[in-house]
Structure formats: structure tokens, C-alpha cells
Design goal:
368 residues, alpha/beta, TIM Barrel, 12 strands, globular, binds flavin mononucleotide
């Protein structure tokens, strides 16, 4: 017998947006938007998830308007007439079936590969030009470049609102540009954007949140995604204690983040010794803001191993439901399980656990 799934199917409201349930499609890069323009196939892909009871869709990372935000011409852009027109179609299709959707706005920073980008001649941007500790590829960003990048995030949020999206998520996780500022391994600056304290290295992110608030006002849902781990180094724990996490999140919360999306590779892992709370549990407790968890929901293996070709079996979700019911977090993002199966949420709602699909890496090749 599985636990009753009702807690997953209770509505949730934050900053004026009411979601029909707690299930969120996690942002997943698909690289299926030639010239950065999401087409009809991309719109249909998201519509299929909305049609089958996914409460909120967060799109794949979509890049803000600077010449070096993207390293992949097939990653959708979030600027320019054709790309924004493509996104409007995505919104219309998702709204047409009663769904909700937000873009994840993104800048790859030093993780961009210039050779594969549309501007191979331009160096990538990062706080200190480091891709990872000891690997310097560029000059540190100038203050003017920082200012322009902050503005680009603000502009993207304004465009999201204009296009009819239900809110916006900022990608501050996984070792991309915002996280490169957070991490002392990649931010060696000694001006106001760097320093020994994590809270000082957060200034870039805080300015981005402030720029977004200036553009969209207070009444527009804003989610901020962050992770302790970096794809460059899974072992990094930039906030090693609850106090450090509280100090890190407070200025972001004060600047206007409505919800923290706390990226773990396995949602059930406790964040700090002495408590079962996961990262989303701590973020909610420390900020008083709602939070979203993520990481291997209904799958046996984690996502980075999937990129290396590992398959995952479908699993039960009793532990997830128990934590949700206890109020540890408010929303649950589901990545690969929704990538392979548009009907994941509906199957869970109807208790069809025996029909949940395993994740096979081949699924990454197509938009089905
Ligand atoms: C194919 C793929 C692409 C991803 N792209 C992004 C992305 O663009 N932005 C992001 O924040 N996370 C990205 N992720 C991470 C997911 O959002 C999610 O955190 C991760 O897959 C763990 O959830 P899961 O175990 O349910 O798949 C990606 C994951 C996958 C599998």
C-alpha cells in the first residue's frame, strides 16, 4: 500500500498565483530550439505535461540578452523578436489547457564553451574568469559587464511578464554565472562583488533580484533556484551551517524572492547534521518563505549519472509525501520522471504507480 497522494494535490498560492497542486516540472535543458527559437514542437512538449496535471512548468534554462550568456545555439534565447514569439506560443499552448508556466532565465558564465557558441571570438564571463578553482580562461568581469548582465536579467523578467508567463525563475544554481559569484572557488574578487563572506559574494544575485523587482513590480512571482553543490565539484557546501544558510538567504529574501527552489540531487538527504530537514526544509524554516524541493523524485538514481548513461528504476514516493504533509517544503519539482513521461502527475493522482516509467538516457534524444 502506498501513502495517500492527496497532499500532493492540494492547491498552493504564493504572490497571487494559485497552483492546482504541488507538482512542478523541473527546468531541463533540451537544446531543441534551433537558432535559439523555441518552435511548435517545444510548445507541444510543454503542453503535454500541463494537460496531464503538472501544476506548474518551469521551462528549460533560457538565456538572457548578453552576447556570452549562451554556449549552445540550440538552447532557447529569451530575447529577440523570433525567440520571444516562440515563447508566446509556448505560453498560449500551456495556458490553453489550463496550465501555469514560468521561464528559467539563465547565463552560463564560465561554463559556456566559446567554440560551440555563436560568438567564438568572445571570452566567457565570470567573476574572476575561472571555470573552476585553478582554471582561468578569461579576464575577470568588469563592473560595466556586471551592470549589463544584471540589467539583462531584469529585462528578461520584464519580457516574461509581457509574454504572459505566470512568473519567472532565476537560475542561481549548479555552477553557472550566479553560482560562480557565490562560490569562493570561482570568485576571487576583492571589490564589492567578492570577499571572504558568502553574503558579500551574493551581491551580484541580490542586484539581479532587485533589477527584476524594478522591472516587474512586487506582484509577480519570483523563484530563485540555488544549490550548495556545483557541477564542477559536488562536495562544495558553501553554507556549511544553518546560520550560514540563513545569512546567505536573507538578503535575497529581502530583495524580493518569493520562493526558494533548493536543488539537491537526492531530495531525502539531510542538509545538516542533527536534523532530517533537507535543503528546502531549511530554506523555508530560516526565511519564512515557501520552498520547493527536487532530486530523484520517483527514481532510483540521480541525474548527473543519467548524463553518463545510467538508467534509473521507478520508485515509490511515500517519503516525499510524508515530508510534504509535515510542511517541510511546499512544492516538489520533478525532472527526469516528467521528461520520460508527460502523464507522470496524472498517474500519481490516480494511484497508477505500477505504470510509472523508468528513466532511460535515450529519452534525452527526443522531445516526446
Ligand atoms: C536533461 C536535463 C537538463 C537539465 N537542465 C537544467 C537546466 O536548464 N536548469 C536547471 O536548473 N537544472 C537543469 N537540470 C536539473 C533538473 O532541473 C533537476 O534538478 C535534476 O534533473 C534532478 O531532478 P530529477 O532527479 O527529478 O531528474 C537538468 C536535468 C536534466 C536531466
Amino acid at each position: 500500500m502506498s501513502r495517500p497522494v492527496e497532499p500532493l494535490f492540494e492547491p498552493f498560492t504564493f504572490n497571487g498565483l494559485t497552483l492546482p497542486n504541488r507538482i512542478v516540472m523541473a527546468p531541463m535543458t533540451r537544446s531543441k530550439s534551433p537558432n535559439g527559437i523555441p518552435g511548435a514542437d517545444v510548445a507541444a512538449y510543454y503542453r503535454r505535461r500541463a494537460e496531464a496535471e503538472t501544476g506548474l512548468i518551469i521551462t528549460e534554462g533560457t538565456t538572457v540578452n548578453t552576447p556570452v550568456a549562451s554556449g549552445d545555439p540550440n538552447v532557447p534565447k529569451f530575447w529577440g523578436e523570433d525567440s520571444l514569439k516562440g515563447w508566446k506560443r509556448v505560453v498560449e499552448e500551456v495556458h490553453g489547457v489550463g496550465g501555469k508556466i514560468m521561464p528559467q532565465i539563465w547565463h552560463m558564465g564560465m561554463m559556456r564553451n566559446p567554440a560551440k557558441s555563436t560568438h567564438p571570438d568572445l571570452q566567457s564571463h565570470g567573476p574572476s574568469g575561472l571555470m573552476m578553482p585553478g582554471k582561468q580562461h578569461s579576464e575577470p568581469m568588469t563592473k560595466e559587464e556586471i551592470r549589463q548582465t544584471v540589467e539583462a536579467f531584469g529585462r528578461a523578467a520584464a519580457d516574461a511578464r509581457e509574454a504572459g508567463f505566470d512568473g519567472v525563475e532565476v537560475h542561481g544554481a549548479h555552477g553557472y554565472i550566479i553560482d560562480q559569484f557565490f562560490w569562493d572557488g570561482t570568485n576571487l574578487r576583492n571589490d564589492e562583488y567578492g570577499g571572504a563572506e558568502l553574503v558579500a559574494r551574493s551581491r551580484f544575485a541580490v542586484e539581479i533580484v532587485e533589477a527584476i523587482r524594478r522591472e516587474v513590480g512586487d506582484d509577480y512571482p519570483l523563484i530563485f533556484r540555488f544549490s550548495q553543490w556545483k557541477q564542477q565539484d559536488f562536495s562544495v557546501k558553501m553554507a556549511p551551517t544553518p546560520d550560514a544558510l540563513a545569512a546567505f538567504l536573507k538578503p535575497l529574501s529581502d530583495a524580493g524572492v518569493d520562493m526558494f527552489h533548493c536543488s539537491q540531487r537526492r531530495f531525502w538527504e539531510p542538509e545538516f547534521e542533527g536534523s532530517d530537514l533537507n535543503l528546502a526544509g531549511w530554506a523555508k524554516k530560516l526565511t519564512g518563505k515557501p520552498s520547493m524541493t527536487v532530486g530523484s523524485v520517483s527514481l532510483s538514481g540521480e541525474f548527473i549519472a543519467s548524463f553518463a548513461g545510467e538508467a534509473s528504476e521507478a520508485t515509490g514516493i511515500d517519503d516525499l509525501i510524508e515530508r510534504l504533509e509535515a510542511g517541510e517544503f511546499d512544492l516538489v519539482a520533478v525532472g527526469r520522471a516528467l521528461l520520460v513521461d508527460p502523464a507522470w502527475a496524472r498517474k500519481v493522482h490516480t494511484g497508477a504507480f505500477d505504470q510509472l516509467m523508468p528513466f532511460k538516457p535515450e529519452a534525452l534524444a527526443t522531445l516526446s
